[in-house]
Amino acid sequence: MAARAVAESVRSTLGPLGFDKLLVGGGGEVTITNDGVTILELLHAEHPAAKIIIEISKTQDSQCHDGTTTTAVISGALLEQAKELIEKQVHPAILVKGYHFALSIVLETLDEMGWELSGDELADAARTSINGKSAESAIDTLSDISVRALDAVRDDEGNINLDNIKVSTFEGGTYDQSELLSGLVVEKERVHSEMPQSIVDANVLLLKTSLEPKETKIESKLNINDPAILEAFLAREEEAIKVMCQEISKSGANAVFCQKDIDPLAAHYLAQYNILATKRVKNSDMEALRRITGAKLVSEIKELKPEQLGSASLISEEKFGEHICVCVTNEGAKSVTAILRGATGHTVSELERCFDDVIGVVALSDESKIMVAGGGSAYAHLARVLRERAHEAPGRQAMAVESFASALESIPWTLAENSGADPVDTLLSLKSSGIHDGVSIDGKIENMKKLKVIEPRKLIRTAISSAVEASTLILRIDDVISMKPSGGDLPPPMMGMGG
Ligand code: ADP
Ligand code: MG
Question: Judging by DSSP bridges, how do beta strands 310-320 and 323-329 pair with one another?
């Protein structure tokens, strides 16, 4: 019951007309989202069976980035169906066997479904994933960004490393202002206002050490009585900084990204040399910059050589809403940044979650290459096949196979329900329709492939497999037993009670 309640809680968000949820945390913090896994993660579920559904949705998220609501809905439906069979005296062990039998038919059928991905279908898959999210208003911008991002980070062997697609989010703007940068957004300002604001064909120095006067290693106390000595002492430090900056300029560098601090005096000298510099750059950004510019990470300024520098076609300070950042562009870089914009913190966070789904789907489509039609059509087809072949299952397992078919139909059912159509009529029509027929956005039965509503086959395979895993795990349980807290105090021995 608990597990089914959890699954039920995300059902209304499924599909292009699904609603969003507004979640309020213990501290009053608010999240508005359509993303299944986000809702489930934020749900305060106590019951272990409910937690299993949440875990399975997270698994789907980590493997496919998308389809998390679907996984939860199918898990819930499998349990719902199981409850009815258990009430008809079918033993849970038979049920579990029947579900596994059905799963094997499903996987076999899936292997023969679908078609090979063609180039422009990546954008269609992206659009299918964006449908129904609040970011839908910028569907063209987003699908374009995700497909271009994927193409940019593809290596020579055709492999994709999603870590090379960075995301920077900014409040104060519209979804449509989102863009893809071939390079990196360093979320830091220049350290001095007189530094150049943009440099074309920059020579980039990546500095691991600080630009400050050297700290003396020995702890010492200096007693200076003569102001002239103090002045000389300070002058020496100033001179050292000046020499460092000179050295940098001499190497030909005109942009410096420093992982540590830059002394104000150093900033002043660098500005005089027309060098743009930022300080306290994150370690992960330094790594990305190394890849983008080809620069070495330098920790010794003395004898700085031009070979240690990298290059960027453009470095410029930009303002995104209230944020000032330094953008490093290199055309053809194998590392890109999606700059996501939205009016408020809530909308930007939801956009970021949506982008994660989209980029995941695009990457999955690209990697697994086989696409199927969406709108619940694949689930409807699998259900038809299961009903035809249910008799192959031994004895009462056949009933479980029929139930499995009904559980898969929960996807077109829910899509119909969420689009205001009559789910019973929809399912009746789907019982005799074609392989690509699903529920369209206006609740009609249409050819989803023609409508370009498509999904990677792998997403469906993983969603169904995970759902079976979760529901059968729960079906095997007959009791929930609370354990003693581990390492906790043992109850005091009962003395004098005769053992
Ligand atoms: P999930 O978290 O499972 O991805 P979504 O809310 O993203 O849930 O809904 C995904 C479902 O919506 C998929 O079954 C997909 O085929 C369907 N879908 C997406 N766009 C359309 C559309 N334009 N018409 C019909 N179904 C659609
Ligand atoms: Mg989705």
Answer: antiparallel
